[in-house]
Design brief:
CATH topology: Rossmann fold
Distance between the termini: 12 Å
Number of domains: 1
Structural class: alpha/beta
CATH superfamily: Class I glutamine amidotransferase (GATase) domain
Helix content: 10-25%
Order of helices and strands: EHEEHHEHEEEEEEEEEH
Strand content: 25-35%
Number of strands: 13
Amino acid sequence: MIGIVNYNMGNLASVSNAFTKLNIETSIESDPKNIQNYDKLLLPGVGAFGDAMDHLKKSGMDEAIKNFAASGKPLLGICLGMQLLFDSSEEFGNHKGLGLIEGSVKAFDPSHFDHPLKVPHMGWNELFAQKQSPLFDGMKKEFYLYFVHSYHVVCDDKYTIGATHYGYKFTSAVQKNNIYGFQPHPEKSHDNGLKILENFAKL
């Protein structure tokens, strides 16, 4: 069973519906005491990093997610959920993250863009696989996914399994052992996104 973390900051219905299309059972979970009961955990997220961490801490969900990750069972963060896996973010101040993967979350810097582009980065863009990962099983080396974000992860290349170009190259998918993250929204990315979710369910 896959648990979808509910901390009042995620697009829970669209994530749940994507798994329903795949005939994969999920449960939206609000109680941190129940987190360890799941085989796999998905951390969605839409909104600001600091607000999200506040919600996770107030509910005790932050420690429950850390304990789940330490158990070795698969954990997947999507969009803001991926960013929360890291040490810190500079979004509206400086905020500590869950610290499950070493790295930080930075704003897009248009002064380094190779040509003028709008921020946020919004719409379809290519993800280029940088390494083999079980989440890419049955997929091409490059494929389109749907993005909506103004901040991106900066981390060691050893964690980067997918990269995308928007003004410059940035990390768009990560893996550290049993912990995975995608900056784009698989649940909004039609067949390519559904394949990623299906691969996660097979872990």
